[in-house]
Amino acid sequence: MPGTGSKRGFVTQLEIVPVILAGGEGRRLRPLTSRNRPKPFLRVFPPYSLFQHTALRVAPFARPVVVCHESAGDRAYEELSALDLGARRIILEPEGRGTAAAIALAACDLVNSGAGHDTLMLVTPSDHYLDDDELFEQVVRIAAARAGEDRMIMIGVRPVAPETRYGYIETEHTPDVGLYSVKRFIEKPAKADAEALFAVGSVFWNTGVFMCRPSYYLDLLETFEPSIRYEVGKACDLGNVRGPFLRPERSAYLKAPSKPVDYAIMERCEGSRLAALDTVWSDVGCWRALLGVKLKAVLQ
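RESULT FIELD:
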């Protein structure tokens, strides 16, 4: 994994607040993973866990909001402390309700703190591999400086193979002020479809990393998934804050429909843009992917 050096000079008037998603049920990479040892906290790229690598990657921005299962809260806090990093908030899910609700927890907390309009959430999974942190920061800052008030900015990487395990984002051929206009999402295509997509120069893998204002995210939820917006908002309003931890009210949160953010919002909102990140990326979602990334690192 790369270090945390950064190139400055790209300025946005909005504070960039990372939202680190550290959930999961430990179903991938078994027997290394389990419910009590989810993938983000594996040290598959020593000396740090995947979660710590993610925290270092977003360290040049504001202190992060972390969303994780309540059983992993102390571990997330300890792993951040070991890096001399702190969290703006660590939100403890009583149970996973999908990424749409998890991100809504962070958005509600930011809005409740008065930071709903003057910040950009930089939402990122914490169990992926990315080999150039400096380039990641540069792309994020450029994209953030060009972000509109009501717009999703996604981070995509160019496919290096016709992979069927990843989602794809098809874009317009001509970048819009350095950003590509998003046309459609294609979820985990069949082999023949993946080969056709791979041949198109304006198609990117969906990394799950995106930016938008917290208030805009909640507005989209209100439009497309009002039940998630209502129940998560209620869970936050009735939640218990102790130190850096926010424990949402359990019964309200468990009423929120469980949906991934891709289906709940991404594929339904209009005007989204994509920033291209030209680096090696993997979701490390299976043993083949993990071994492939490790082999590339050895050969470099």
